[in-house]
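User: Please predict the structure of the protein below. I'd like the answer in structure-token form so I can feed it into my own downstream comparison script.

Assistant: Understood. Taking the following sequence of 472 residues as input:
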Amino acid sequence: MRPTSILAFTLSLLLAGPAPADGLAELSGGFGLAPDQLGFVVIDTENGQVLAEHQADRMVVPASVAKLPTAVAALAVLGPEHRFETQLALHGSTLFLVGGGDPLLTPEDLRPAFRRIRERGLRIERFVYDATALPEAPEIDPLQPENSSYNPGIGALALDFNRVLIDWKSGGKEVTALAVSDALRLKADAVRLVPSPAPVPPPYRFLAEGADRWVFANLQPSGRIWLPVKQPALNAALVLRRLAEREGVSLPMPVAGKRPPDATIMQIHSSHRLAEIVRRLLEHSNNMAAEMVGLSTAGRLAGVAPSNLAHSVGVVDGWIKGIVPEVDWTGFARANHSGLSPASRTTPRQMARLVVHGLVLVPDLVDALPSREIADAEGGDAKEAAEAKSASLAIRAKSGTMAYARGLVGLLWTHSGRRVAFAVFAYDDAKRAAFDAALDKRVPEMPATATTWIRRARGLERALLRNWAAAY
């Protein structure tokens, strides 16, 4: 009998209170997991009643589920209508590019100012970028593979998600770094690539060598790869310098500085509404956007810009614990705002209760959570997708995935019309510890054994969701 079809005996096991160990062992065992690798809780959002739980206080790695506290705090503290501002300003013959923490900024957004400079015939003798509104860091998590585009630098100035497209031909004799947006491709002069003086073991193609300098070897005749930007403010200024050149405006090489208060504003670009930014960062699980939104939220809470990422997370998490005081937050820890770290820890109960309280505090949270009408939006074959669709699962939830760690937290509308908050995590402590101990930052690929484990965990997750939808 397929594990995903064994609904009858699991309905009783998932009623209120801890699940019977024998029934859960049969269900989880069908997916190659043990009950002690699983933790979940289901809570009625109307009255706060716990409908089902199993190891709800088990500490797990949240992965990208850790973006949920960032989302709740940002929407509550900054407000869903908040917009981040990026400025181009003139002071004498100096042009200032001033970052305001917009994580979705693209070169096109600032194009009008360069056109006005050209039309007015202004001569720019200095070009200064001001990224002092937020602290800057060359990467989010130092334990990630060094060429992972999902682990870029962060700060007040970001462009095209702080990643560049490396395009090469002739086996690496022609290599170009490009900033890519919907309408433009511009040279990214901040990123430099040079041939490796020694062979690089395949299949590695790029290795970090400090800042935004990369070495390469063993390239195919032609190809492409995305690389993270380590100096986001400098990269933004240099890419916009290329855009200005395209618009007929000559700018000198940019330098870091601070805009004087009496500078004349050439353009203020306002970002999308924060509600839309949060929706996108949760849907696409964008780490850079989560970090920048988290930094701005901490700055509003503290009244000053946080000194670094750790300070920022501490401020936001202190606020989170205050809005859900009845939860035991012992052991809760986030290394950053995005969940991009194996050092972060949470429990199913902490996350589910956060969702329940977040709905009261931030009604926009419902729309911000990714819609998952088909339970497994991240993968799975066509048969699995058809099964999920036939089960009529109405879900809004944030997922998180790392090697030997999988979580899904959000809202489920049951077949009876009830809305419940749920948190379900699968975590293999021993395999995750072994994975971290053997980490090689030069290797971006996840081992096949880990991907197989994640696929099984997702299957168990779907089975539980279908059962909860029918049971409640």
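That's the full token string. The longest helix spans residues 448-471.
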